Amino acid sequence: MTHPQPRHCTLAVPVRATLASDPAQPAVRAEFRYRSWDPFTVQLELALDQSPSVSWEFARDLVLTGIESPVGLGDVRLFPGLEGVHLELYGQRSAAVLVLDADDVDHFVVESLRMVPVGAESDFHRLDDEIALLTTLPLPDTREADGSPR
């Protein structure tokens, strides 16, 4: 029995955000993005003032959990607070703590769940496309400069 292909779509939700260290600073431009064909991942585009935007990708489950309880052990951590949802981002050279508007984050969560409910991710994930991509990537060269095996 074949199942109909799910409809693939994208979601972009602007999120009001401020730097936790200096809420008086101009707002951080932030936007959550979600693609139904990559159902386990969310993107977050961030920019401050006129600086170029920075894109972070992390698991949707972090956002789903982080609106209600602390979550994250690596570069991305979320937890609810009185002012909103706190988002900690740790890069190689710097870190930032943002406060995201809880209503905006909730809106993103509701809409992403409407697109792809929890448990239905495998119906949307394009695993065949990823496997095809992997098979086209060149293999690393395993020979020494003189042609002998490493």
How are the SSEs ordered, and which strands pair?
Blueprint: E1 10-19, E2 28-35, E3 41-48, E4 54-59, H1 60-66, E5 76-80, E6 85-90, E7 95-100, H2 102-115, H3 121-124, H4 127-136
Antiparallel strand pairs: 1-2, 1-7, 2-3, 3-4, 5-6, 6-7
What can you see in these coordinates?
It is found in: Cell septum. This is SsgA family sporulation/cell division regulator. By secondary structure, this protein is α+β, with helices and mostly antiparallel strands. The protein has a single domain, classed as Sporulation-specific cell division protein SsgB (Transcriptional Co-activator pc4, Chain A). Helix content is 23%, strand content 33%. A 7-stranded antiparallel beta sheet has the order 4-3-2-1-7-6-5. The longest helix is centred in the C-terminal third of the chain and has 14 residues. The N and C termini lie far apart (49 Å). The N terminus is likely disordered.
